[in-house]
Amino acid sequence: MANKEIPYKIYLEESEMPKKWYNVRADMANKPAPLLNPGTLKPMTAEELGVVFCDELVQQELNDTDAWIDIPEEIVNFYKMYRPSPLVRAYCLEKKLQTPAKIYYKFEGNNTSGSHKLNSAIAQAYYAKQQGLKGVTTETGAGQWGTALSMACAYLDLDCKVYMVKVSYEQKPFRREVMRTYGASVTPSPSETTEVGRRILREHPGTTGSLGCAISEAVEVATSHEGYRYVLGSVLNQVLLHQSVIGLEAKTAMDKYGIKPDVIIGCAGGGSNLGGLISPFMGEMLRGEADYHFIAVEPASCPSFTRGKFLYDFCDTGKICPLAKMYTLGSGFIPSANHAGGLRFHGMSSTLSQLYHDGLMEARAVEQTSVFEAAEQFARIEGILPAPESSHAIRVAIDEALKCKETGEEKTILFGLTGTGYFDMVAYEKFHNGEMSDYIPSDEDLQAGFDGIPRFPGNE
Amino acid sequence: MANKEIPYKIYLEESEMPKKWYNVRADMANKPAPLLNPGTLKPMTAEELGVVFCDELVQQELNDTDAWIDIPEEIVNFYKMYRPSPLVRAYCLEKKLQTPAKIYYKFEGNNTSGSHKLNSAIAQAYYAKQQGLKGVTTETGAGQWGTALSMACAYLDLDCKVYMVKVSYEQKPFRREVMRTYGASVTPSPSETTEVGRRILREHPGTTGSLGCAISEAVEVATSHEGYRYVLGSVLNQVLLHQSVIGLEAKTAMDKYGIKPDVIIGCAGGGSNLGGLISPFMGEMLRGEADYHFIAVEPASCPSFTRGKFLYDFCDTGKICPLAKMYTLGSGFIPSANHAGGLRFHGMSSTLSQLYHDGLMEARAVEQTSVFEAAEQFARIEGILPAPESSHAIRVAIDEALKCKETGEEKTILFGLTGTGYFDMVAYEKFHNGEMSDYIPSDEDLQAGFDGIPRFPGNE
C-alpha cells in the first residue's frame, strides 16, 4: 500500500477502529510515580482512590503492567457515532508554506463537544453507570471537557455537575447553554457552593479561577454526595489510556498508507491529547522498534514542562486531592486572566512528566499572539477554525515545516488538531482588535506557585 | 453489497465523490419558469443577468437542458477538504424511538461554515475568480452562507462583502468574528450604506431585517462597484445545481449498501439544501425509474409552500432583482423577529416550486417550539447539536418514524442534517428558559406580503 495515492482525509473503516486501548505505562522502564496520600505520604490504595473515583477507573489508574485494555462494546458503539476521526493531509497548507515537509493532522473536532475530550468522557461515564452511580462531578476550563461529559451523561442518563473556571464561564457564555442542552448543571468556579470554593474566594477575592480550584470544588461535591464520583478530563493515567484511541487510529491510518511520521506534535495542558496521540508511537520507541521526535507545546504563560519542577504536588488548588509526581508550577499557581487559550493547568500528566524527564520528548513554550496568528493562517488555508489550545500545536507544526523549507528536508510532520474554536470567538475578537497581549511570567511570578509545592523528604 | 452490515457512518472514498453536478431541470417535463426583467416582463437575457452575476454562473442559471455539468478540478479539490460528508445511520435514535423505521441523515455540518452552504460558496467564488473579479457581495441570514462565502473567498483571495440580516447579526455576535477571521466585511442589514437600505429603514423604522432586504443591499453594492458581482446562497437554479453533490453522495452511499429510501425529508428556506438532497432521487422519479415520497419542511411562521402563492415575484424586498416564478409570501413579507430558526426567505426556489406545483413533493409547516424539542432530543441521542434550520427536518423525520412505530411499517427515512447549531445558542437559551413562543401568521398578517406581489396579466 506504500505507494497508494494519499487522499486529503484518511478515514478508517469502523472495523479498523481500535478494540483495545493502549497503556503506554506497560512499556515504560521508569514507571510514572504513584499517587500519594497527602496525609501519610504513602501510595494511594485502590480503596482510598475509590472514595473519589469509580472502581473500574481506579483499576485502570493503577494498572501499569497491562499494555492493552479492552474497550467495552458500548463504548465502541458510542465511538462510532463520531469516530473514526479523519487523519488529514494538509496539502493546502504545505502548498501555501512552500515546504517540502509533509504535514498531517489528526482532527478530533468533528463532534459537538468540539474536541477529543469525548473519548474519555464516554468511558468515564460508562464505568460510573456500570457501578450504579447517580451522577458525576467535574471541572471544566475551556468548556470542552464539560461539554463532552454532559454529552456522555445525557446519552447514559447520568446526572452531571460541572464546575467551570470563572474566566471561561464569562468568556464563553454559550458553552453553558450547550451543556444545558445536554442536561448538565454548570457552576462558575470558585463558587460559594463548596467549602473549598468559599475558602479560595476569601484568600483570593476577585480571582478568575483556575482548573486547580474547580477540581477542588468538584471533588468536594463528589465525596460529600451519596452516589456521586468525581471524573477528570486530563492529567490522570486513565485519561491518557482512553485517549490512546487518537494515536491508535492515527497509526493504523498511517501504516495503511506506508507513512512514518518523523515529528509528532501535540499541545499540552494536562496532557490528555498529547499523551493519547503519542502513546502508540512512544510505545514503539520504548520497545526500540522505531524512533520519533515528540514535541509537547505549551503556552509561555503556563509553562509546566519548560519552567516547572519535577516534584510531588497537589493536582488541585484546594489541596484536597492526592499528590502526583509531575512537572508543576505549584498548585498555588493561577495563570494570568490575559491568557485566552486553555491549557491553564499548573501541572502535567505523571506519565508524560516521566517520559519528558527521561529525555524522550521535547517541550516548547509559545506565546499567544503567535498562536492566534497560526490559528488564523490555518483557518484560511485549511478551512477549519481551530481551538486556541490546538493552535499551539499548529504554531509549532508550521515552524517545523518552515524549518524544512530552509533545510530542504522532506520531514513528515504529524500534529494533533484537538478541536474547533467556535466557542472561542471572544478570544479571536481580541486578537482581531489588536487587544491581545503576551504574558510571560517572571521567575518572581512563578515563585508564588512554587511556594505551594508541599515539602517533605525527597520532594525538595 | 445489499447484505453488507451498515456502519454508523458511511464515508465514500474520495474517488467516489461526484465529478459532475446533476441538473434536475434537464429531466423536468415542466421546466421552472424563466426569470423576468421587471421592466419589460420578458425573460432575462444572459447579458442582463451578467450585470449582477458572474458569466459562467449565468450560463448555469439558464441551462435547463444539460443534465450533467462538470465540476472544475479546483472545486473538487476544495470539496476534498471537507467532503465527502458522512451518511449517518441513526441507530441510537431508532432505538430510542423504538421504531421499525430505518433512519439515515446526510450530515453537512462538519465544516467551519457549519452547513452545506460551502458547496455552492466555493463554486461561486471560483467562477468569480476565473472571471478576474475583485470581489463578491452577498447577504446572509443565519450567517452560515456568509461564513461559507468568507471561507471560499479567503481560500481564493477574493474580497467579500456580507450584508447580514440585522436580527441574526444581533443574535449571533460571534458569527461576525468568524467571518472576520476569514477576512470578510460584515454589515447589519438594512443599513445606511445603500440607497435601498436607507429607503427600507425610512419605510420600516425599527425593522429587524429580512433576507429580502439584505439581498437588495448586496445587489446594489455589486452593481455599483467595478469588479464586483453578487452571489446568492440559495433560491437560484445554479445553487441547487452545486448542492446536488449532497444528493449525489447520499445516493452513491445508499446504492453501495443496497439501501433505497422511501421518504426523503429536507428543511426548506430558499430550497438549496432540499433541492440538492433530492435532485438525483427526483431525477429518477421524473424519468420513471423509481418512486419516492419527498417532504419539504418549512417554519409555520414563514410558510412559503404551504400558504404562499405560485406567482412571479421579486426575490428581494427592495424590488431591484428580477422576478422569479415561485411560491411566495410576497416580497413585502417580513417574518416575525420571534422566529429564531433561519429559513426566513419569503419565496422559494423556482425549480422546487414547479416540482411542488406538479404534485411531486409534499410540504409541511412546523412550529418552532416543536422544532427545538426535536433538536434537543436529537442532540442528546445522536450527539450532534443541530442548527435550528436542520431541526425542522429532524422534527418531521421523528414524526414519520413514530408513525412507523404505530403502523409497524419498516420505512427507510433519509433526511438532510444541513448544519450545526453552535452559533444558535441564544435561541437554544430562549428555549431552555421557556421564553420561546410560536408565531403563526394569520391570513391578515400574510395579506401585507401578498399585496407586494407585482400585478400584471397572467400574474394574478
Automatic annotation (TrEMBL), chains A, B:
Entry EC no(s): 4.2.1.20
Function: The beta subunit is responsible for the synthesis of L-tryptophan from indole and L-serine.
Biological pathway: Amino-acid biosynthesis; L-tryptophan biosynthesis; L-tryptophan from chorismate: step 5/5
Protein name stated in the entry: tryptophan synthase
Reaction(s) catalysed (UniProt annotation): (1S,2R)-1-C-(indol-3-yl)glycerol 3-phosphate + L-serine = D-glyceraldehyde 3-phosphate + L-tryptophan + H2O
Quaternary assembly: Tetramer of two alpha and two beta chains.
Record key words, sorted: Amino-acid biosynthesis, Aromatic amino acid biosynthesis, Lyase, Pyridoxal phosphate, Tryptophan biosynthesis
Cited InterPro entries: Trp_synth_b-like, Trp_synth_beta/beta-like, TrpB-like_PALP, TrpB-like_PALP_sf
Domain Tryptophan synthase beta chain-like PALP: 82-419
Matches recorded under SUPFAM superfamilies: Tryptophan synthase beta subunit-like PLP-dependent enzymes
Organism of this sequence: Wansuia hejianensis
Cofactor needs: pyridoxal 5'-phosphate
PANTHER family: TRYPTOPHAN SYNTHASE, TRYPTOPHAN SYNTHASE-RELATED
Enzyme class: lyase
Keyword Amino-acid biosynthesis: yes
GO CC terms: cytoplasm
Keyword match Lyase: yes
Top-level lineage group: Bacteria
Family of the protein in this entry: Belongs to the TrpB family.
UniProt-recorded Gene Ontology molecular function terms: L-serine hydro-lyase (adding indole, L-tryptophan-forming) activity; pyridoxal phosphate binding; tryptophan synthase activity
